Amino acid sequence: xxxxFADWVVYGIMGFDSQTKLGxxxxxxxxxxxxxxxxxFAISAVMxxxxxxxxxxxxxxxxxxxxxxxxxxxxxxLFGAVTPFCSCSSIPLFIGFVKGGIPLGVTFSFLITSPxxxxxxxxxxxxxxxxxATAIYVASxxxxxxxxxxxxxxxxxxxxxxxxxxxxxxxxxLEQSEWQTEKVSFFKRxxxxxxxxxxxxxxxxxxxxxxxxxxxxxxxxxxxxxxxGFLGGGQWWTVxxxxxxxxxxxSNAAGVIPLIEAFVSKGVALGTAIAFMMAVxxxxxxxxxxxxxxxxxxxxxxxxxxxxxxxxxxxxxxxxLI
Length: 322
Known about the structure:
It contains 16 helices and no strands. 80% of the residues lie in helices and 0% in strands.
């Protein structure tokens, strides 16, 4: 329905030609902006309800005291794998986790894995590359999120969240305390939850639009041959080069798999192609722009640097196993 709406606006009302790169880029921008704004509001509202009713303070205390022998990172990664969100629509869930007091490393595990692995991408990957490659892809995505979250937790990065997020944390704790004391009914809470959800959407909307505009331009005007021409040699350095080339791009895992298939058909090693895909969906420049509202540039650099290192290692291992 959203795609039909985008087609109607771009090709019907605005009069762009669907066969031109400009028309494709504008269509991508309208479609993704509409989709992500709707998702942002819906997910923020759901997380608002969860934060209002779910005893996140108890979960936070339990995770901090017991640590679950590292399984909390695996559980967050598994949750990320079964949620069909791209890197941009994962951000409101990230905000909700932080507001609820969930440890930042656990939250990062979700943020890393959610765009990398989802059921649509797995189905497409299975049909394109077979069961063995799919199993390694899913396992590496979940492992990357688990280990990446654990490493980032050790760095104690909470002070590097933006003041806007920390203010949300304080407001959330205050509202939870008031509601628990007063035992306010759901229907009385709902207007406040929806108002707060819209406030979150407005807070990140400019960053979302800028990020999508960058991604739309790249999506419409950068040809696939531009990348595959650099990555077909199979040397060790093609994996880190693939990650560097992927960062400016923006897509979800399902959207980039056809591009990966084209890469492999032109001689790019599968591990190199997978590293490219993971960097596109998990390290994109548009994502960094959107994350600026919730993280300082230093935290974004640490997050991207850690994930980049693990993606490169994953690509090397993938090339060795396949």
